[in-house]
Amino acid sequence: MTQTNTPATPNFFNQEMADSYDQRNSALQPISGCLHFLTNLVLAPVPRNASVLCVGVGTGADIFALATDNPGWRFVGVDPSAEMLEVCRRRLDEAGLLGRCQLVRGTVEDIADTHFDAVVSLFVAHFIKLDQRAAFYSGIHRRLKPRGLFVSAEISVDLEDTSLHATVKDWARIQSLMGQEEKPVEALIAMFRDPLGVVSPAITEGLWRDAGFAEPVPFFQAFAIRGWHAQRPPL
């Protein structure tokens, strides 16, 4: 397996995390539900028989949200964590969706297909090391058909902005909903820098343009979480 686009926290998604991931994130369902609702609307132009790549598929939440409303879509889910993929495989099998899915352990660079109608990557980019972020977006761009759509959401704030402390205080409330112990604001800011690789919206949008995407369109924000969509231009 290639090491390109290695997550910034390679040991974070272990068996313990995989087993508890859905329960830990259940308190955030109003946020993820809204994000998935809007993602479905953004992807409305893709064909009824679309092929969709889910990068950082985790336990399969994005596939579940998209597959229900789009019965003709087929999915490839890729994730570097074998433990998370095993939970994903089990959940998809129980829901009768596994036949529409292919699961791959690895990163976007391990996906050979370059003809996807859409790529979805939610809550993933901030885990990619900063020196590999450009390659991450370029790899996604190469796997889309011309006019294919990319949808992504990540933790994205300007770490030099004067409102940073207030923004991080809001984020601390998100952390508490997930059952994590309260941390000082400065500790959360340090976490945003390392092990996460949080960057400003302006930097993210610039990286998308450099990768070859058309103008990124902001479509979602919930505290520090921001989402964009963009198209791979026609040839």
Automatic annotation (TrEMBL):
Query: Organism's domain of life?
Result: Bacteria
CDD domains noted in UniProt:
AdoMet_MTases
State the organism of origin.
Tsuneonella flava
- Give the UniProt keywords, A-Z: Methyltransferase, Transferase
Pfam families from the xrefs? Methyltransf_25
Under the heading InterPro entries, the entry gives: Methyltransf_25, Methyltransf_Superfamily, SAM-dependent_MTases_sf
Q: Where does the record place the Methyltransferase domain?
A: 52-148
Q: Which SUPFAM superfamilies match?
A: S-adenosyl-L-methionine-dependent methyltransferases
Q: What is this protein called?
A: Class I SAM-dependent methyltransferase
Q: Name one GO molecular function term.
A: methyltransferase activity
GO terms classed as biological process = methylation
